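Give me structure tokens for this 143-residue protein.
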Amino acid sequence: MDKSQKLVKTYLGITKGAIHTLLVMFILGMIANLYIEIPAGGNAWTWVFTHSGVIASHAVLGTLLVLVSIASLVLAFLNHRTGWIVASALGLIFTAGAAYFGSSFLSADSGLSSLLMAFGFLGALVSYASAVFQTKVVGAINK
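Here you go.
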């Protein structure tokens, strides 16, 4: 396996990992949304890390996902594939947006922040899935 094949394989592994992590994040977020009551009054960060393993796990995974999104974008640039660069850049923007609005939700308990966090999740999921799908389509066409 040459260097370019390793870069492709690494990119796809990171990007598929981001998709799987997003799905776990969705599950944790839904559990938190349905079964955990965050105290009113704003700034629930301290409460989260002392009282809610589910939301704390969601926040930690979200932070790691931002790092994975950066790695995906770097690998897309190293592969010199425009479609991957666009998909990974959008994935990073949506992931960072979801993280920002998630933090905002804990700080202010705003329904709008929750909605925008969900839209960020959906945008990131579609972005990364499109990168993987592009690979499948191009691979099928080149055969």
